[in-house]
Amino acid sequence: MMQTVLVINSKGGSGKTTIASNLASLFAASHLKTVLMDYDPQGSSLYWNSIRQQGNCPAIHLVDASHLKVGLTRTFQLRIPDDIERVVIDAPAGMCRKMLAEMVSKADVIVVPVLPSPIDIHASSEFIYELKLIINTCRYCDTALGIIANRARSDNGLYEPLKCFLEELDIPFITTLSDTDNYISAVEKGMGIHELKPQTVKLELSQWLPLVKWLADTRSVTTTLLSTGAVNHN
Q1: pLDDT digits (tens, 9 = 90+) for 57-77
Q2: For residue 223, what are the CA distances in angstroms to 60, 147, 226?
Q3: How many folded domains does the chain comprise?
Q4: What CATH number is given to the structural domain containing 99?
Q5: Quick one: which of 151, 156, 178, 223 has the most CB atoms within 10 Å?
Q6: Is the distance from CB of 104 to CB of 143 less than 8 angstroms?
Q7: Please, what is the Cα angle at 45 between 40 and 49, to 5 degrees?
Q8: Domain range spanning residue 212?
């Protein structure tokens, strides 16, 4: 069964592409046929995958969803091969509500990275609340929504107000990812953290583990709902 993971935040610079590319490479390295859809006009995921194609890493099917191509319909440009098992969407910043609702409708799982600054946390809290409203209003009750702290330098309690806010909305705070040079090294090679030598990325792997487990758990729940006919994305 295919699972679509949407990585999104209305605030620019939250590290969406880093999370999306690492998720895609994790899936691909796990022998899952993977698509990475780049909706960001900056094309950072496109650039990362172009580097990846020069090496020996497992292939990722890249869909350029932000640059219209002459002679191709939008539907054809966004097509996904039939045998794909995982889709990761790298969303742009600053979307209108209509586009945001469209993005949510595509997703089985939504991951929101939040940077450790008061401004980012405040802006992200408003965005997360809007996301929750869209999920409830449009009846995507089976869509899982989780938050991760991204590019953190230390665990100094800065995220505590956000965690309390998320508890009120019944949204999980999944994990905190440190800001380390290993992420830069991985990007330079067109790779993900999980494809680097394990002994060099012990910290990063331990921090990713809760996210990996959460994604697996949400997939199990969705599979159960499908088997009982409870899921309806129409």
Answers
A1: 999 999 998 877 666 666 657
A2: 24, 22, 5
A3: 1
A4: 3.40.50.300
A5: 151
A6: yes
A7: 150
A8: 3-224
